[in-house]
Amino acid sequence: MEIFEKEINARGLSLKPDFLASKMDAIATQSVSVNDILNCILSRDLRAVATSKFSNLNVSSMREFSEPVLFQVISVLNIAQPSAKQMVPGLRPALLQLKLTDGQNKYVAIALEDIPKLSVSTAPGTKLLLKCCIIRKGKFLLSKENAQVLGGQVRELMEQWKTQKDLRERKRACAADQEDPPPVFTDFEPTQKCSQSCNQVNSTIPKACKPETSRPKTGKPSVRKATPSKKPSMTKKKDINDASKQAKGHHVKSTDKKSRKAQCESQKTGKKEEKERSNLSKPKRFPRGSKKTDSSTL
């Protein structure tokens, strides 16, 4: 019996005592070999048959394990694809994430490369044998050298997996049917109402926005008139201040001119009055030959 247990452990299994007790008579008579028991286990749920080899070890602190261990696949996802396409087989790029169990505990493994017989379509219950596997942050890193798919089908797990797969496909089909399809293309046929509405729209457009009609080209090249560029608001304020200053200066100059004119006029009137006064004070003189002599005096 001890030899049989060692052979089973060398194959990566740690069987429960209840299962061994049921096979005790066949093992004692050597009517059942180790290969027969392994083939029987491939078609059984590992959670009902085996126990964990890592029950006394903390996997998160481990770096690797050298002994072979038999695991059972729970699910396989392609985490390199969106969640809606993680169960679709044949998509690239592919990075498979596996959920495994050794009969007692659950583990996570990542396939770093393509492994034969391992894909998204791998059904739950499939047995996977790992040898000398590297562990990083509690996750098993799988490769062709340390992973081997042994196969096996568990009828109960297979039926559940198929029903879930059918439900997912139906949901996708229903979601595709519910999406609104694009409208059917129809040729444009202008009608009277359409032409009237177009005319109304054109009438509301300002003249500056309407495109210029094509003009016949002449011999002389067309020269565009330079439009004065609008100055920013700061220059406008400066111009207004300068204009106000100029207006004030002009007003001062005009008042100075008026005062000067008034002074000149007052001086002229004063000179005239002085001349008139001097003329009145002087005796009148007659020119020679102009004075008449009376005949009586002669």
Automatic annotation (TrEMBL):
GO terms for cellular component: nuclear body; RecQ family helicase-topoisomerase III complex. Residues 172-191, 205-298 are annotated as: Disordered. Residues 94-164 form the RecQ mediated genome instability protein 1 OB-fold domain. It comes from the Eukaryota. Pfam families: RMI1_N_C. GO terms for biological process: double-strand break repair via homologous recombination; resolution of meiotic recombination intermediates. InterPro entries: RMI1_N_C_sf (IPR042470), RMI1_OB (IPR013894). Residues 268-279 have a biased composition (Basic and acidic residues). Belongs to the RMI1 family. This is RecQ-mediated genome instability protein 1. It comes from Albugo candida.
